[in-house]
Amino acid sequence: MNTAHKGRILVTGGAGYIGSHTVVALLEAGYEPLLLDNFANSSPSVLERLHTLTGQSITCLEADCTQTDAVLERLRPLHVAIPFAGIIHFAAYKAVGESMARPLEYYHNNLGAMTSVLRWMEELGISLLVFSSSCTVYGQPEALPVSESAPMQPASSPYGHTKQMCEQMIGDFVRANPSCAAVLLRYFNPIGAHPSALLGELPLGRPNNLVPYLTQAAAGWIPPLTVFGTDYPTPDGTAVRDYIHVCDLARGHVQALDYLAHKPGICQAINLGASEGVSVRQLIDTFTAATGAPVPHQTGPRRAGDVAQVYADTTLATQLLGWQPQFSLADALRHAWAWQQQLPETSRP
Ligand code: UDP
Is 159 assigned a catalytic role? Predict the structure, then answer.
């Protein structure tokens, strides 16, 4: 581990799937993460596993980001003692399907938390922000691969709409506070787990996302996977996404912070993906080829809110951040499977 101290970073949603991998990457790069999480979709046991993996003690405030003033008063003395150099804001609800069924919860939680984070920056004088955005802001893009300059299409779900609105809020905030700077990281589909199998994705209840559903179905924990839609205008009829290893994604956050350090006034959107379109069928086949494990599956109708295909142009991430993925799709699926195989039966939904 690099022991140089590059500053303390507040990581909202730091116990979550992408947050926890980013905490490891921050520590490796010499930052001091302080986590803020309400464990709405994560478990406090992540903190012990982070300690085992990094050998560092991890501080986490248990708090709900939508409680703007109450959390501000808890952050203030911490900031006076050791100032926060920046914030990485992950804390949000993230399931497309669920957002169609429960839109108000998504607007309340995701926009409320975003407003809080910007208020904390203003009140405490924190100038750097890395925001967890999504390729969902593009809707169904007209041209592929999609670059950051693509016009935003209407979002296909309330979840996507909250990400678009958060990006706009941050843009307005930076314009009004030009000593601040932000990177909006537009993730494609984060998958996989830490190669140690100590961190990974464990949604509470039955998974919504493809890879955790697939690994749990392959383990026999849940019913067979349903392939949502076989009549898309794609080569094999199933929907195409761009799957990126979560550790590559995590490193992108650290590189975004490094990039922001001397760029007051910028608000820059950057794609993070593998730049490769992969269909649901191709993903199932790659999983079985990489792990030897068959995936029980059936086909079904399209899922509401899904777009047919989206994959990234990541030229900007390479140019601005010097970022490139290091893991393959097969690596990511092997790591996801190793993570699944060490999960105790008590994790079974
Ligand atoms: N998908 C699927 N079965 C599932 C879950 C997802 O066929 O049980 C498909 C989904 O329709 C999409 C792709 O897998 O085309 C990725 O879905 P996921 O929910 O992981 O991410 P999204 O792209 O929606 O953010």
Answer: yes
Task: Exactly one of 138, 159, 187, 232 is catalytic; name it.
Answer: 159
Entry pTM? 0.96
**Per-residue model confidence as pLDDT tens digits over 94-124:** 988 889 999 999 999 999 999 999 999 999 9
Q: Strand 181-187 vs strand 297-300: parallel, antiparallel, or unpaired?
A: unpaired
Please choose, from the candidates 136, 137, 129, 135, the residue with its C-alpha nearest in 3D space to the C-alpha of residue 183: 129
DSSP assignment of 259-283: HHTT-TT-EEEEEES-S--EEHHHH
Asked which of 45-59, 150-164, 281-295 is least confident by mean pLDDT, the reply is: 150-164
Q: At the fourth CATH level, which superfamily is domain 7-347?
A: NAD(P)-binding Rossmann-like Domain (3.40.50.720)
Of all protein residues, the one whose alpha carbon is nearest to atom 10 of ligand 1 is 228
Residue 136 CA: which ligand 1 atom is closest?
A: 25
